[in-house]
Design a protein that fits this description.
The chain is an alpha/beta fold. The protein has 9 helices and 18 strands.
């Protein structure tokens, strides 16, 4: 699984950062969290493809998280997309999309399946081997964080066992390594546990959206392999963070520490810290002993 930061800034674009948009690429599928301005560039420059299975998750309807969505939808259409995509976000996301397409005289040539969120905690997607949960957080407008959880995966693949059971090398081996049962030409069913060693815990990734520190999100983030948390301000601007429903870098570190996260990435960086990101990094390290980074546009991380 690969996480790609198409945009890492907050409030407005700068020369260094576009506003926040984060793509997760897994097994040929793209999960896109928020659509800051210009995020469609990622689908050409970032090699994310045009016709891959695509699910878009919007945290809230503030402009720096959603203004890139109409451009993305139109660009995918102009580039020839013909596969339906899924769009998930707070109430009002459908109206936002429809009115933007209508006012710009653009009708896309593919389907858009929309799910509008209401409630505190919702399982919004249940895939074959993963799920995505939306958790309502504490911002100035309705806003959701997203939890991506993979199912436990088979452990180390044991080729000698596969050969002994008569499984031919090739696609069937790959299926078994992914945790999928396979059927041999003689009709025999081979299950992953027969050719693997134990189990590996599935990957867990959290994207906070915009929020003040919030207990429900902190509990949802327990055991995260990767916590992507907004850190719009340093503690020098704590009152601004309080007033505008944001988190400081120090608080983001405290949240990562509580959750026992393996890695913390600070995102939604205010333009006021352009060239001063070290202040945010140092602050987060005061409260979190694990690995911490300040996101940059086009940062890629394997999880």
């Amino acid at each position: 699984m690969e996480v790609i930061f198409l945009g890492s800034g907050g409030v407005m674009p700068t020369r260094k950062r576009k506003t926040v948009s984060i793509a997760v690429r897994r097994e040929g599928e793209i999960l896109l969290f928020d659509c800051g301005e210009g995020c469609q560039n990622g689908f050409t420059w970032g090699g994310l493809g045009v016709n891959r299975e695509l699910k878009v998750f919007i945290s809230h309807l503030h402009g720096d998280h959603v203004l890139g969505l109409p451009g993305l939808l139109m660009s995918l259409d102009l580039l020839g997309r013909n596969k339906e995509l899924t769009l998930i976000g707070p109430k009002g996301i459908m109206k936002f999309v429809n009115e933007n397409l209508y006012m710009t005289y653009h009708e896309v040539g593919y389907g858009i399946k929309v799910l509008e969120l209401e409630g505190e905690r919702i399982t919004v997607l249940e895939g074959r081997d993963y799920r995505v949960i939306a958790v309502k957080v504490k911002h100035t407008v309705p806003c959701y964080a997203y939890v991506l959880e993979e199912a436990d995966r088979p452990g180390r693949f044991l080729p000698e066992r596969a050969i002994k059971l008569g499984v031919p090398k090739g696609p069937l081996w790959k299926e078994l390594q992914r945790g999928i049962c396979v059927k041999l030409s003689n009709g025999r069913i081979i299950k992953p546990f027969q050719v693997t060693e134990g189990k590996r815990r599935g990957v867990k990734i959290i994207y906070s959206g915009d929020t003040r520190p919030y207990s429900k999100l902190m509990w949802a983030a327990l055991g995260a392999d990767l916590l992507i948390h907004e850190a719009t301000f340093s503690s020098r601007h704590y009152l601004k963070a309080m007033e505008n429903g944001h988190t400081t870098a120090l608080e983001a570190g405290e949240i990562a520490s509580f959750a026992d996260a393996k890695k913390l990435i600070l995102v939604h960086i205010s333009p006021r810290y352009e060239g001063k990101e070290g202040e945010l990094l140092s602050e987060a390290k005061l409260s979190f002993e694990g690995e911490v980074m300040v996101a940059e546009d086009w940062l890629r991380i394997k999880v």
